[in-house]
Amino acid sequence: MPLVALVRKWAKRKRVTPAQFALVWMLSRKAWIAPIPGTTNPAHLDDFLGAATVRLTPYEMEEFDKEYARIDLIGHRADPFTESQIDK
User: Average of pLDDT values for 26-52?
Assistant: First the structure.
């Protein structure tokens, strides 16, 4: 699972959990992206909140995106109808 390995590598580099890094990366993509994580587990909530204090520099974003682009992702993001509505 190359994507999981990449996220783990970057999480270690940033000294955060993989879940925190995933949130940090998503929040760093565009200013209008607003994830809505949900949980009933207090430990997961702490994980989510911890991501708010971490930043990626533009250089780090570029570096991560280059590594991410080299990974062949297999499968679909969503069902066919939902995929037809993405980026419209």
Answer: 84
pLDDT band at residue 49 under the 50/70/90 scheme? confident
CA 51, 55, 60, 66 dihedral sign is positive
User: What is the spatial distance between Cα 41 and Cα 35, in angstroms, rounded to a whole number?
Assistant: 17
Q: Which residue has the tokens 């069902």?
A: 79
Distance between start and end Cα atoms, the chain: 30
Place of tokens 């009933």: 40
Angle at 4 between CA 8 and CA 81, to 5 degrees: 140
Write out the two tokens for 33.
């992206």
